[in-house]
Structures are given as structure tokens and as C-alpha cells.
Design a protein that fits this description.
eight-stranded parallel barrel; alpha/beta; 47% helix; binds zinc ion
């Protein structure tokens, strides 16, 4: 076996660099994918923010644009409503289901979700809303389509509920039937100072990683909080996407530098 083949196999097994296309949400879909390709990325997380809400049948347009781009879509970030009142449940369900339809059209088997409940929703109503959104609607629909759901840890700045182990455990105790994965957002866990706690609790069930420094700024160098995080993930056997999720004002040059940094770093994993 040639060295090239061995390296290619190792890369295929390791963590995969991906880019959230949410940061190009002001571009048309074709322009969005073109920007991703121009930067040299092969993998994307499709963020539903990239779609202007028009019509359910738009999923076919998304499907064609992705096929034309030749990009690999590794995951999809659901459209989300953090409900503040049970009257909004139907809308959160719609967002979740149209996102699942889009994931199916794009051939994606992993969808990142938030808890879909606002941190302002009274505790007495959280369980009811979580059940109505997930257990009654989104989870069975995801099962039917063969799409795995992955719950993201949020930041204290988010309007949603689920920023630390205690809150995520409350959510999971209602919605998890044993199949729910975790989307580990490093930016959020650095902001809430929960990185170690979250890793210890969920390291073995991470299915997707959102990668950025605080405030969704890019990492400019391999700082210890970054390399330690990647090493620990590696030790837990993680070999899924490392999805760069960067602020809207990140320039193309800065994204390219970030890609170079991670191309280099991920060779070790
Ligand atoms: Zn995220």
C-alpha cells in the first residue's frame, strides 16, 4: 500500500473539516456554495439560515444547487424557534419539519437542533413544550426519514434553554429516547466556561462540532483551549465534522487562514 493511500485512509477516518454556510446567508444559494468552493472547502453544514423562507417546494432548488456544486453536505442546522409560549409550538414544529425535509432532499443524515424552548419559558411549561415539539412531532418524523438529531449546547447569550449540563440533562430527560446525539459548540462552551463539564458528560455522544473562538471569532493560532479540546475529542473516538461556524463579518481572507490552520491541525487527528 502506498503512503498516499495510507494517508488518504487515515484522513477519511479522522475528523472532517466543514464550513457552516450560514455566514453567507446574504448571498443567493448558488453564490453561497460558490463562495464555499472558492475557499477550497469540500464539506459543508447546510444552515437553514441560508434559505429565505418562501415555499416548502424550495427544497428541490436546494437539492439541485447542492448537486451542481459538488459539495458534500455532512450535516444540516435546523431552523429554530425558541418558544416563549405554548401557542408557538406549531411554528417550532414547522421549522423542525421543513428542516428535516430539506435534510432529506440534500441526502443528509444528521441534523443539529436546539432545545426549541426559550430560557424565559417557565419551568412548568418547558416539559410540556419539549414533549409537544420533539416527542409528538420532530423525533418521530426524523426517525421516519432516517435522520439523526443532535442537540446543541447554547451560550448564555442565546434566547434558548440549554447552556450547561444541568439544563441539557433536563431537556434530554424529556426528549431523548436513547438516540439523541450532541452538537458540541466550542464557542458557546468557552463563553459559558462549560467546556470540560460538557466534554466529560457528553464526550462519547458528540456527533457534530461547531468550531469557533468566543463570539464566533476565528482561532488564529493553536491555543491550548483549542488543542486540548481536539485531543480530548480524539480520545473519545470522535471522527465526525469539525464545522467552522464563524461570525458574519469574517472576511474571505480570514476564513481562508482559518481553513489553513485547521487543515494543519486536523492532520494529527
Ligand atoms: Zn453553533
Amino acid at each position: 500500500m502506498s503512503l498516499f493511500t495510507v494517508n488518504a485512509m487515515r484522513q477519511a477516518k479522522g475528523m472532517k473539516l466543514s464550513l457552516s454556510n450560514g455566514l453567507f446567508s446574504n448571498l443567493s444559494l448558488n453564490g453561497n456554495f460558490a463562495a464555499v468552493k472558492q475557499l477550497g472547502f469540500r464539506n459543508i453544514e447546510f444552515n437553514m439560515k441560508a434559505i429565505r423562507k418562501e415555499h416548502d417546494r424550495d427544497v428541490y432548488r436546494e437539492q439541485k444547487a447542492l448537486a451542481d456544486s459538488g459539495l458534500n453536505c455532512l450535516s444540516l442546522h435546523s431552523a429554530i424557534l425558541h418558544v416563549k409560549d405554548p401557542i408557538e409550538v406549531h411554528q417550532a414544529v414547522y421549522y423542525g419539519k421543513i428542516s428535516l425535509e430539506c435534510a432529506r432532499a440534500l441526502g443528509v443524515s444528521l441534523m443539529t437542533v436546539h432545545s426549541n424552548v426559550s430560557k424565559k419559558l417557565p419551568r412548568s411549561l418547558r416539559e410540556r413544550c419539549l414533549k409537544e415539539i420533539f416527542n409528538d412531532e420532530i423525533t418521530p418524523f426524523a426517525k421516519k426519514l432516517g435522520i439523526k438529531l443532535s442537540l446543541e449546547n447554547l451560550s448564555y447569550m442565546s434566547t434558548g434553554f440549554g447552556k450547561n449540563v444541568e439544563q441539557l440533562e433536563e431537556v434530554l430527560s424529556v426528549i431523548d429516547d436513547g438516540t439523541m446525539g450532541i452538537t458540541f459548540d466550542l464557542c458557546h462552551s468557552l463563553e459559558t466556561k462549560e467546556t470540560d463539564n460538557l466534554l466529560e458528560k457528553y464526550g462519547r455522544r458528540v456527533y457534530n462540532v461547531h468550531m469557533a473562538n468566543k463570539a464566533h471569532k476565528r482561532f488564529t493560532e493553536p491555543k491550548p483551549e483549542l488543542t486540548n479540546f481536539l485531543s480530548k475529542l480524539h480520545d473519545y473516538g470522535y471522527n465526525g465534522p469539525i464545522t467552522l461556524e464563524l461570525a458574519h463579518d469574517t472576511s474571505m481572507e480570514e476564513i481562508a487562514k482559518s481553513k489553513a490552520l485547521f487543515d494543519n491541525l486536523l492532520r494529527q487527528f
